[in-house]
Amino acid sequence: MSHGSTDEEVLLPVADGEPIALSAARIDELLGVGPADVDPAAALSFARNVFVPLTTACRYTCTYCTYFDPPGEASLLAPQEVREIARRGAEAGCTEALFTFGDDPDDRYTQIHEQLAVWGHGSVHSYLREACEIAIDEGLLPHANPGDQRREQLELVADVNASMGVMLETTADVDAHAGPRVKTPAQRLATIRTAGELGVPFTTGILVGIGETRRDRAISLLAIRALHERYDHVQEVIVQPVVENERWRGGTPDLETLRRTVAMARVALPPEVSLQVPPNLAAAGQLVDCGIDDLGGVSPVTADHINPAYAWPALDELERIAREAGVALHERLPVYPRYLPSELRPPAVDGATHPDGRSWLSDRIVEALTADTDAGDRYRAVIGGRG
Ligand code: SF4
Predict the structure, then answer these.
(1) Which atom of ligand 1 is least distant from the CA of 66?
(2) How far apart are alpha carbons 39 and 20 in whole angstroms?
(3) Of 262, 248, 161, nearest to 202 (Cα)?
(4) Looking at residues 282-286, what average pLDDT do you find?
(5) Contact at 8 Å (CB) between 310 and 277?
(6) Which residue owns the Cα nearest ligand 1 atom 8?
């Protein structure tokens, strides 16, 4: 990105809105941060989830991504398939249905659009709403990642999700995002801003090693912080290394780079924002002292469809990481405790302030959390500290 910089500030464009202004001095300060500048977290958390790869269609072609399939080859899960995955997850004790996507399939994906029409949907977001309702019915809390989203798209699905997310990845313009349909940081920042305006508990993160510099990482992290300070909605930030696969031969960041990046993220972000590395993609055990406090989702029943070649470590592997680091391990829901209504929130946790003073979670999600059902019991057991 050609940052509109002066000596004092860096200006980041945000689609359909005011740019984000960052202090150049603050960016420079972060460049020198290392593991010695942070304290390790007292505990690590994780969530039990199932991956629901609703569609592999995507309008973009990021050069490191093995998730998307081109038109004619992309898959679209049928409602019954969604139901079966969710049911298996609930039976295995999961709490989260992690809906993975490409970004809005464009007109080239005629088969996808035709199939959606057969099922009575004019868009993938409309179908996502139905899929989230199926997951709730089967006893899971949806967390959807449908890529860049316009306000009306987010509004259509926000009340059937416990939280949502999109990776910012980087605020830099990198070749990895180029191609006939360029994925722009301004759109990603706008999605994070819109989630804040709508009061959606949100997960985002940076991707390390796709052509960005250390300074770009500092800028990306401070941009996330700036949006969180406005809306209080960023529940966690993922620091994810790019990994080699059949589409990406550009290497993966070394451990020292990751350690310095995680430490930088811990210093850049406010303490209430959780910091996660995915343990199937990074040596999480060697990053605990750099400030991570979350290990993401582990799935007992589905593969990681974003990075299928990298198996999820079993729960006992997470336990080993926590034990060797000398910290506790506890399970969490896909929505962090600060966003729960006060009657469900653990007493020691301060609630986040919704931009409009409302509850962060919809009636539909609160109903699921408080229901006198197996799923309700499971959710409340996690809030109460099972595992
Ligand atoms: S990383 Fe996301 S936006 Fe990029 S091609 Fe893959 S699925 Fe699409």
Answers:
(1) 6
(2) 29
(3) 161
(4) 92
(5) no
(6) 102
